[in-house]
Structures are given as structure tokens and as C-alpha cells.
Amino acid sequence: MGLSPLLAAYDNVLLDLDGCVWIGGTCTREAPEAVSALRSAGKRLAFITNDSSRSPEDYVRKLWSLGLQASLEEVVTVGAAIQYALAAKPSTGVYVIGSEEIFRHVSESGHQILNGTGRERDAQVVVVSWHEGFNYAELRSATQAVSEGAEIIAAGRDRTFPAEDGPWPGSGSVVAALEYATGRSAQILGKPDPRIFRTALDRLGDGRTLVVGDRLDSDVAGAAAAGLDAAIVLTGVTSSEDARAAADPAPVAVARDLHELVVAG
After folding, report:
1. What is the pLDDT of residue 179?
2. Residue 185, φ and ψ in degrees, nearest 5
């Protein structure tokens, strides 16, 4: 299976997961074949996600279960980016909105988690990411901590993410609620922040790089911020009309799905 002329011109390919490689627990059309074609052509791959609810090990297991070979080194999550950023700060109290995996990243960064201690409003940092159990009490505690001076570190601004039964609210929806309640802005560490792309490139090495995703506001904008080309697939949240009308920045290609982009071009 040969590559399209577009993909043949790149050395590295950074693949978004939700909406590009899979939707929920199902691969997009012939995604395993597309990834296999990239590997057969000698392309260096990374899988990038703003979903902080799973560990890199979880993502490797899911990729293999769906017929996509991947190594731990190839998976770059926003949770790891959050841990790295926190580790550079002096030890302090942190209030966390997120999954068990985010709690683990914060704990391993060397900070004290204040959830459930009665001292939530004393936190100097509030970490925000999507998780299915998000509730008003979490928003209240985070609002009080930020109102007392805590900074906000967030996984991303994705409004939604594609699921098998339709779009679900993403981390951006939670961040927006906290920003609106406090009048403060969050520091975003996932896409479109360029650091997550640079983390992937640190692992892959030099070469011409293409980002493939389903979102203009995070995948294409983030690639542009990192100085990289980006292509859009229409299996996620972006419509054909919006993708083809995008001008600043514009994707280098728009395709029905990953397989069409990689093989047919």
C-alpha cells in the first residue's frame, strides 16, 4: 500500500487520537491500514492527545487492541505535560479537577493535593481537565481557590470531543466555566499550546513534520504555533465547509478520513 504524494514528503507524522484515529472505542475507516502504511514507508509517528483521563500505558493498550501498533515512547499526553510544568514549580498546594490519572501526575510532580482536606481554597494552583464525574462542588472549590489568588493550569480548550453517541463536553467547557466565574485566564498546556508538539518532536528527531487532526482550533492552530504543517480529517468535529474556509492558519490538506489522507491523498 503506497502513500499519497502529500504524506510521502514528510519524515514525521503526529496523529491526533480522538476524532482522527478513533471515535470512542471504534477506529475510523481503515485507520490501522493507514498507520501500517506510514510505518512501512519509514515515517516516524507520535500519537498526541488532549484527553488526560488515561495514562500513556492505557493508550498503548487501546491502540494495540484496535489493531494499531504503538510504543510507549510514541504516545504524548497532556497529563505528562502538566506533570512536567508542575515539577518546575516550588512545592505547594494544588486543587485538582480531573481523572485519577491527573491526580497521579500532580502527585508525582512533588506537590500536595488539597482535595478533601478542607483547605481547598488555600491551593496556589488549580489544575483543570475533563473527567466524567465533574460536578458543581468541584467548580465551587476551584472558584474559591482562584479567587484567593491561585493560578489555573488546564489541559486544553477543546469545547467537545467526538464520542460514538455524539459530541461530549471537553476540558474547554470546564475551563470556560471557571474562567467565567473568576474572571481569570488559564494557562493551557495541551493543544493548541506548541509545547506538546515539541515534546513529540524531541522524541522523534529532526525532519519535515505533518500534524493530522480533526480540529481547527487545537490541531491546526497548535501546529502553526509550533511551526508545523497540519492536515484536517472530517471524522471528528470539523465540517468540510469550515475546513475548506479556514485561512489563518489553513490546513495543507482536507480529507474524508485518515486512510484517504494517507493512501489516496
Report:
1. 98
2. -105, 145
